[in-house]
Write a structure and sequence with these properties.
heterotrimer, A mainly alpha (325), B alpha/beta (397), C mainly alpha (399), A: 325 residues, mainly alpha, B: seven-stranded mixed sheet, 20% strand
Chain lengths: 325, 397, 399
């Protein structure tokens, strides 16, 4: 047996990088959960399907371009941007629609009721995506067309390289987080969102149209999810209507980890979770001599969550939600 | 108040009326109908594979029932969705055995569902022919009515190990599997045989991960084995091997027949050219397989999924067995059909199939194939690297 | 008077109907509908209960003789009824949102599966499986094991509430499933994804076939659990739970020992699941981690909510509706469509045989389930048979 210490150290930078990439993915998805929770104190269970819906819209755009032979004709940033825009728009609008139809009528009810409704929406959307894709394309396990430029690998050090698409994921995530930060903290609309998150009644007394702000929150959160979906598809290649569920669950865990309702918290939580998962997957079997391996990475992450919540029940960065009167 | 009551009664009577319509149709179908049932997951994550089983059977039924329909029987397909869950499979099984017209079950996809369901079929000697269940327990119980046309994990794994050790001259291998009955089963068999042949198994990892394999690949790269073996299905194997190659893993790749699908290269593209896989299905360059592929595409509008061809073969065998036992104008009994299945010798696109005394194909041909092109359409042109004919292990007393 | 005639008539007619058309799903649904009707009809109590007793003890087994599938459905309904009643204690009475309830079910199931099958020989070297008769004491052992697990879960989550609690319980459910799937090394406890089989069954009294035996056993357990639930609800423990659910701060101020009560809620709820787990593994003869996924947890939660939280008849009805929906309605509809297709029936000149295979209703169970959940929440959040307090709470304006 014997631990190969040199091996453990050698792979460290690469595992770190894997964790960061994964973490940013989770962070983007977590944003949708945390924004909605911040404003409504409500877990939008259906966000995982909103996320994957964005991925599907993205793949349809790319497949459509490929069918017309246009995929190689345009520079890849342009194509990627197109897919991202489409995914964001679709997911954002889907989120708004879901809010209108399934959540708004339940706004005053005890928290369990909208939660169940959200679960129902989640199931419904999974099969709806499947139905639509089955009718349109007669298949619902879809593969993202490869864009050669994105698969190029850049050397960072002599043992480590990173693919262009991973860099794209990181850069896009950072850009979007920064944009969100600007919106929420520097614009009038953002102030309105924060006001509604803090105290709905007072906000409406100040003349804010609460319904509109809530819809806007869902729009932004959904759009973030949609972008994450397209990036997910580009990075990992294979999607099906049910593949949103697990990343969504983990992203929600990340949001809770960082402090639900807290936007920087979502990012911190996402990164922490991504790193935890990457390290568990790579190191567990090496450290335990094969007794416990990568298959435990998920519960490793969950156990970490439970531990953190025991010692810091409000999450790492703390909750930013109004106190219950 | 009274009006409410009347409405209620009216509604109930209406429902009764509607209920009896299909019921009466069922009654009328009692004479001269032969049904073949399929049980496979039609919803949920494995629906694509389960669909393949259903559609393969459907195609076979439509193409090959001519002899029976000429004798005046109606031959029908009854598909069931077992959702890959044992409880649903068992519940469906009870429903299936209650329908006296069903003479054979083609199914399942998951061994975990097939095992308890076949206990139910056994109660009435209803024969089951499996296109995809590779767990040894399926036939090791020695039931006279349980059969399979596919390979067994405890044979396919060693075939891969033998090829790796003798032909590829591998010295070290890193084994990964998908933590299902199938993937883990075949990976364990591979590992055992590889160790016997003196190959060093540097690691044995399982994962349920479907998209992001990077953290698992990093240790593989660091350990630098000669070969990476993945026990599982193409929808995981594809992304896994692709990401491994992209990350810089230089090893050769090998896997079981779960990788045998044109979708594998659709997912992985160029990175997967040169990958090896073992399979019990003959390469689709044979004219029969090609015709099957074309017919399937024409009828259903897409390429056949994995196990569709096995399902076709299983249904063909079932029909042949039924044909041979039809006496007079009446459909045969299930026990008769079960016995007849064991006597059938069928030459089809997966080879010649004949069952031994526990339901395994007598001498299964195993092929080791190598992927030659990243074009999914050219999947049929994969190179055959080796061919072996291996008998299934005898019943352990 | 009319109601009396109707209830007797419906039940008799539908039972006869099932005997005559053993494979018609709709007739069986009618039979079940008649049971609900009898439960709600304005007829003398004696008549109501005698009809129900006759239906469950006599008619059902007879139906089972005609088509074993229905008996299977009834047994599965029974299992889920107990699970729903158990979760009802945790979520409905005590207000603790548990999204990983199926973990306790799994613990119970594996406890019998390991010792009641040759698998334990791998761990202990010999002496197993235990004889079938050990099944009965294991019902108790499963109960205790699950209750212990419930307390183990309860301890770290005591300070959490609402949504944090939900996510942690969800994680716990997943942890149990992953453990079940992976504890085949270093010591092989659960045999991983390959599952454990064959699991011994107890010898049946009077030589009853197993289908009928499990049906009656489940029925007996349902009765016992309902009685226990009723007693709990009316006791000071039950009232303490409801106090915690309504307002934890006020409850504490009134002297309710929060820690003890919460742990007891988890333990009680878990114990029901544990008992059914043992029964489940004996009935199925084979278990593997796939029966214990998040989907099952949500399913049981949906049963409790749809039926009416905190209400015993609600939990029973919710379990029945969801199980029947999953097992019968959509499948029956699919099968029916399939038979129409085979018969070449045309609707408005469009031959059903041409209907693309995508439209098979059984495939879209999740969609239907999802729609039902959403619609129920919007239009009848108190559930079909709400507990009276809940009804007032959710239907009075400003509530």
């Amino acid at each position: 047996m014997g631990m190969d210490f040199e091996l453990l150290v050698r792979i460290f930078p690469e595992v770190l990088l894997d964790g960061i990439i994964l973490g940013f993915m989770y962070a983007l998805i977590a944003l949708g959960y945390t924004m909605v929770y911040g404003v409504l104190e409500f877990i939008n269970f259906a966000h995982s399907e909103i996320f994957i819906a964005g991925a599907f819209v993205g793949v349809e755009i790319l497949l459509g371009l490929q069918a017309r032979g246009l995929l190689d004709g345009f520079p890849w940033p342009f194509i990627l941007l197109l897919a991202l825009m489409a995914g964001m728009a679709a997911s954002g609008l889907l989120a708004v629609a879901v809010e209108r139809i399934a959540y708004r009528p339940l706004r005053g009810a005890p928290r369990l009721i909208p939660l169940i409704s959200a679960i129902g929406v989640s199931f419904f959307l999974q099969d709806l995506i499947r139905l639509v894709e089955s009718l349109w394309r007669n298949a619902f396990n879809l593969v993202y067309p490869s864009i050669d430029a994105l698969n190029l690998r850049l050397e960072l050090t002599e043992t480590m390289d990173v693919s262009v698409k991973s860099l794209v994921v990181i850069v896009s995530a950072l850009l979007m987080l920064w944009a969100l930060h600007l919106i929420v903290n520097r614009t009038k609309v953002g102030t309105a969102i924060r006001a509604v998150a803090e105290d709905q009644a007072a906000a409406s007394l100040m003349g804010i149209d609460v319904n509109r702000i809530i819809s806007l929150t869902f729009l932004i959160g959904g759009a973030m999810g949609g972008a994450a979906g397209v990036l997910f598809g580009v990075q990992y290649g294979l999607i099906n209507p049910y593949s949103g569920f697990i990343p969504g669950l983990k992203a929600f865990t990340a949001a809770v980890l960082g402090g639900i309702g807290n936007i920087p918290g979502a990012m911190v939580g996402g990164l922490v979770l991504g790193l935890l998962e990457a390290f568990a997957a790579s190191y567990l079997s090496l450290l335990t001599g094969g007794a416990f391996g990568a298959e435990y990475k998920d519960i490793f992450a969950f156990s970490a969550l439970i531990l953190i919540l025991i010692f810091r029940p409000k999450g790492l960065l703390g909750e930013v939600v109004r106190e219950r009167a | 108040m009274i009006r409410h009551r009347v409405r209620l009664v009216q509604a109930l009577l209406a429902v009764l009326a509607v209920a009896l319509v299909p019921a009466s149709e069922l009654g009328a179908q009692g004479k001269g109908t032969i049904k073949i049932a399929t049980q496979s997951p039609l919803s949920g994550g494995q629906a694509a594979l389960g669909e393949g089983i259903k559609l393969g059977a459907q195609l076979a039924l439509e193409q090959l029932r001519g002899n029976l329909t000429k004798q005046g029987f109606k031959v029908e397909l009854v598909p069931f969705d077992d959702q890959a869950k044992p409880d649903v499979g068992v519940a469906n099984a009870k429903n299936i055995i209650a329908d006296k017209d069903i003479l054979v079950v083609i199914g399942h996809l998951n061994s975990g569902v097939a095992i308890p369901s076949s206990e139910v079929y056994k109660e009435v000697d209803l024969p089951m022919i499996s296109p995809a269940n590779t767990n040894e327990k399926i036939t090791d119980r020695g039931y006279p009515s349980v059969n399979r046309v596919c390979g067994r994990d405890d044979v396919q794994g060693p075939v891969g190990a033998e090829f790796a050790a003798q032909t590829l001259k591998i010295k070290s291998v890193y084994v990964v599997h998908d933590k299902t009955t199938y993937g883990q089963g075949v990976a364990e068999a591979f590992k055992a045989e590889a160790e016997k042949k003196g190959v060093k198994v540097v690691a044995f990892e399982g994962t349920e991960e479907k998209s992001n394999f990077d953290p698992i690949i990093t240790p593989i790269k660091a350990k630098n084995p000669d070969l990476v073996y993945f026990g599982g299905i193409y929808d995981q194997g594809g992304p896994f091997f692709k990401q491994a190659r992209e990350k810089g893993v230089k090893a050769k790749f090998l896997g079981p027949d779960g990788l045998d699908s044109s979708d594998l290269v659709k997912i992985g593209g160029k990175t997967l050219v040169g990958l090896y896989y073992t399979t019990a299905a003959a390469p689709s360059t044979s004219p029969q397989a090609k015709k099957f592929g074309d017919d399937f595409k024409k009828k259903f509008g897409k390429n056949p999924e994995p196990y569709a061809s096995e399902s076709y073969v299983a249904t063909a065998i079932a029909l042949k067995a039924i044909e041979s036992t039809v006496a007079g104008g009446k459909p045969p009994t299930r026990a008769t059909v079960a016995a007849a299945i064991r006597k059938v010798k069928y030459a089809g696109m997966t080879g010649t199939i004949e069952f031994d005394d526990k339901g395994d194909p007598k001498k299964a041909s195993y092929y080791v194939m190598q992927v030659t092109s990243d074009n999914p359409e050219k999947w049929g042109e994969n190179k055959e690297a080796k061919r072996l004919a291996i008998a299934a292990p005898p019943l352990k007393k | 008077m009319i109601q009396t005639l109707l209830s007797i008539g419906l039940m008799a007619a539908s039972a006869l109907g099932v005997a005559t058309f053993p494979r018609s799903v709709l007739v069986f649904l009618l039979f079940q509908g008649s049971l609900v009707f009898v439960y709600r009809a304005r007829i003398p109590e004696l008549l109501r209960w005698s009809l129900l007793v006759v239906a469950l003890l006599v008619l059902m087994p007879v139906i089972g003789y005609f088509n074993g599938y229905y008996l299977e459905v009834a047994t599965q309904v029974g299992i889920f009824v107990v699970l729903a009643l158990g979760l009802n204690i945790v979520v409905g009475l005590a207000g603790l949102l548990d999204l990983g309830y199926v973990a306790f079910f799994a613990v119970g199931a594996y406890s019998w599966a390991i010792f009641g099958s040759p698998h334990a020989n791998i761990i202990f070297g010999g002496g197993f499986p235990l004889a079938g008769g050990w099944f009965y004491p294991f019902l108790l052992i499963g109960l205790c094991t699950a209750a212990l697990t419930g307390i183990l879960l309860g301890l770290p989550v005591l300070r959490l509430h609402g949504d944090y609690l939900a996510i942690v319980t969800l994680g716990f459910g997943e942890v149990i499933r992953v453990l079940a799937n992976n504890l085949d090394k270093p010591i092989n406890l659960t045999n991983g994804p390959k599952g454990i089989t064959p699991i011994s069954r107890p010898p049946t009294p009077f030589g009853l076939p197993y289908g009928e035996y499990f049906y009656f056993l489940v029925l007996l357990l349902v009765v016992v659990v309902v009685i226990v639930n009723r007693r709990l609800e009316d006791s000071h423990i039950g009232r303490a739970w409801e106090a915690i659910r309504e307002d934890e701060l006020a409850a504490r101020a009134m002297g309710v020992p929060l820690v003890r009560m919460k742990l007891m809620a988890f333990a009680c709820g878990a114990s029901f699941a544990g008992v059914m787990g043992v029964l489940f593994s004996a009935k199925q003869v084979f278990i593997n981690p796939e029966s214990f996924t998040f989907l099952e947890s949500i399913g049981v939660l949906a049963m409790v909510i749809l039926g009416g939280m905190g209400s015993i008849p609600g939990a029973i009805l919710g379990a029945t509706v969801v199980t029947v929906l999953n097992l019968q309605v959509l499948k029956g509809f699919s099968l029916w469509l399939n038979e129409l297709k085979n018969a070449g029936v045309t609707v408005l000149g469009y031959s059903l045989a041409d209907l693309p295979t995508q439209f098979e209703p059984a495939k879209y169970e999740r969609m239907v389930f999802g729609i039902i959940l959403v619609l129920m929440m919007i239009f009848r959040p108190q559930g079909i048979f709400p507990a009276r307090r809940r009804q007032r709470e959710l239907t009075t304006p400003g509530g």
